Amino acid sequence: MYREKNKMKEKKILNGKDLSKSIIDALKLEVKSLKRLPSLRIILVGNDTASQIYTGKKVQIANEIGIEAKIINFPDSVSFIELKSEILKMNLDRNISGIIVQLPLPKHLNAIEICNLISPKKDIDGLCFENVGKLALGCEGYFHKPCTPSGIMTLLDSYKINLEGKKCLILNRSNIVGKPLFQMLLAKNAFVKIAHRKVLDPEISSSDAIFSAVGVPNFIKPEMIKSGCVLIDIGISRDKDEKICGDIDPRCAEIASFMTPVPGGIGPMTIASLMKNLVNCVKYFD
Ligand SMILES: Nc1nc(=O)c2c([nH]1)NC[C@@H]1CN(c3ccc(C(=O)N[C@@H](CCC(=O)O)C(=O)O)cc3)C=[N+]21
After folding, report:
1. Which of 52, 59, 140, 234 is the S-S candidate for 213 at Cβ 3.0 to 4.6 Å?
2. Is residue 158 a known part of a binding site?
3. Topology (CATH level 3) of domain 147-266
4. CA of 193 to the centre of ligand 1 (A)
5. pLDDT tens for the 286 residues of the chain, in order
6. Distance from the CA of 53 to the center of ligand 1, in angstroms?
7. Could you tell me where the beta strands, DSSP code E, fall in the chain?
8. From the alpha carbon of 103, which atom of ligand 1 is closest?
């Protein structure tokens, strides 16, 4: 009986770690048959520890696949003009397939303007006007889409979780997570809502699915949610013992039908999507 119960619990925890591994393994093989090897450049401004860890991870996984990747580091004081000239140079360089600007940027730099300098074909975060517009308009054909929402959709698909007609609540309105996730869920015929700090009643308890990226450890508690709901945890923070934790209290697993863990959920799926976009640069645009 106990084992049965444990097995059921395991099945409802969506394993982003294993799925990302299998995506990365498939990419390793695919890269060998490409006419040229993709290569990645990451623009990193300042010396934020978290950003250094994330970009280091991206380089490590790219290398595992057989993709060359470099971090280009700039001091906090770098100007818009300096970044612009570096990005325009990279756009013209035939040996560079994908470019990302690690976010957040220091306050004096406008992230929207800077990301829009990247050529749409090399913009593997899907943040330039052309790629954002294509997602919003529901364009057909391949174009780059933001990696965190793409990773979420891939994980849902792999567990055959269908959200058509379901009330989906997004707790995040950023350009890199909340807004593109809204578009992708809408394209799947979900009933999508976005809440933020000015919303008095975010309707958590009546939602069929919750996508949370607020960055408050264990923000969503078991007593706040509907039985059988789907919980997607996009938050990463550290609790008072410095342990990595997400927005969703792990005890919610008792009440949810499906839930993503932190770590091992959406984080690794984000990197897998980034690598897929990078390979697609060569596949579709070379
Ligand atoms: N232009 C840009 N593109 C991004 O994609 C981007 C960004 N800026 N800025 C920061 C966020 C954050 N992000 C993560 C990626 C992977 C994990 C990840 O792999 N997490 C692991 C381990 C966490 C850990 O050990 O620290 C996990 O959740 O299992 C987390 C976070 C990408 N971001």
Report:
1. 234
2. no
3. Rossmann fold (3.40.50)
4. 24
5. 455 666 666 679 999 999 999 999 999 999 999 999 999 999 999 999 999 999 999 999 999 999 999 999 999 999 999 999 999 999 999 999 999 999 999 999 999 999 999 999 999 999 999 999 999 999 999 999 999 999 999 999 999 999 999 999 999 999 999 999 999 999 999 999 999 999 999 999 999 999 999 999 999 999 999 999 999 999 999 988 999 999 999 999 999 999 999 999 999 999 999 999 999 999 999 8
6. 9
7. 39-45, 68-74, 98-101, 167-171, 191-195, 209-212, 230-233, 237-238, 244-245, 258-259
8. 8
Q: Catalytic residues, which ones?
A: 58, 102, 125
Residue whose tokens read 């394993």? 15
Pocket of ligand 1 (CB under 6 A): 53-54, 57, 100-103, 125, 147, 236, 244, 262-264, 267-268, 270-271
Q: In the block, which residue shows the tokens 């009643």?
A: 201
Residue type, 232: I
CA of 82 to the centre of ligand 1 (A): 26
Check: complex ipTM more than 0.90:
yes
